[in-house]
Write a structure and sequence with these properties.
The chain is an alpha+beta fold and about 250 residues long. The chain has a single domain, classed as Deoxyribonuclease I, Chain A (4-Layer Sandwich). It contains seven helices and twelve strands. The strands form two sheets. Strands 3-4-2-1-12-11 form a six-stranded mixed β-sheet. Helix 5 runs parallel beside helix 6. The protein is globular, with a radius of gyration of 17 Å.
């Protein structure tokens, strides 16, 4: 089974750059998109749900902002587009789909750059969301958490770490949350398969950053430690264009 995650930075814009062709050629069993910036009812049918897939949408109340969708060939046992915390649910940040041997969370984690208030919102989100995941794992569930985490973990995960130490996305307090996640038994799947530098998933549109590979790795697949033996590969697709992010994915036995 192949699962892909991609922050498309606007599903309409990405569709104009080949999103549906990408889905057709890549043929993932599940694809999770973040920052869709759309209500499904405002989209053409093939973007609401590509042929052969089931769709679970979570759009924010504010039009043109945030939003996630999971397209899956396998019909979920259960799907939810809320976690019953209104301050998060109104922004359209989480879709949960449950399958036979795992629960998949498609998440667009908040960006903390706007203000100290939004940084605190981001940190609160990490805590409240992972409390939910921890409870599920305590119940014996396997959990996969994919999406745009909006945080680079280590210096290897961005091109210019020293210059960004005081910028949200690489602040010590944000990086500590990734440490805490890992210390609590979650696995950064990509780093299980690749320890090389210069592996990024987001590049600013400015300064020719993508051509120069001046980027950040902020899109991840984390799984609980007990599920790691089910992962046969984890990958990044930096050559796939259509957004300022590129797709990331895992393959499951």
């Amino acid at each position: 089974m192949k699962i892909i995650s991609w922050n498309v930075n606007g599903i309409r814009a990405c569709a104009k750059k080949g999103l549906l062709d990408y889905i057709k050629s890549e043929d993932p069993d599940i694809i999770c998109l973040q920052e869709t910036k759309a209500m499904p009812t405002d989209l053409p049918e093939e973007l609401q749900c590509p042929p052969g897939y089931h769709a679970v949408w979570h759009s924010g109340e504010r039009k043109g902002y945030s939003g996630v969708v999971t397209f899956t060939k396998i019909k979920p046992i259960l799907s939810l587009n809320k976690i019953d915390i209104p301050k998060y649910d109104t922004e359209g940040r989480i879709v949960m789909t449950e399958f036979n041997n795992f629960i998949l969370f498609n998440v667009y984690f908040p960006n903390g750059q706007q203000s100290d208030k939004r940084l605190q919102y981001k940190l609160d989100f990490y805590k409240d969301f992972f409390d939910i995941c921890n409870d599920l794992i305590a119940q014996g569930k396997n959990v996969i958490i994919c999406g745009d985490y909006n945080t680079a973990h280590k210096e290897i995960d961005l091109a210019n770490p020293k210059q960004n130490e005081k910028h949200s996305g690489f602040l010590p307090i944000e990086r500590e949350w990734i440490d805490l996640i890992i210390n609590n038994g979650y696995i950064d799947t990509f780093r299980e398969f690749c320890s090389e530098p210069d592996q990024y998933t987001w590049w600013t549109y400015r300064f020719g950053a993508r051509k120069r590979n001046i980027g950040w790795r902020i899109d991840y697949f984390f799984v609980n430690k007990g599920f790691l033996t089910n992962i046969s590969d984890a990958f990044i697709q930096p050559k796939t264009l259509g957004s300022d992010h590129c797709p990331v994915g895992i393959t499951i036995f």
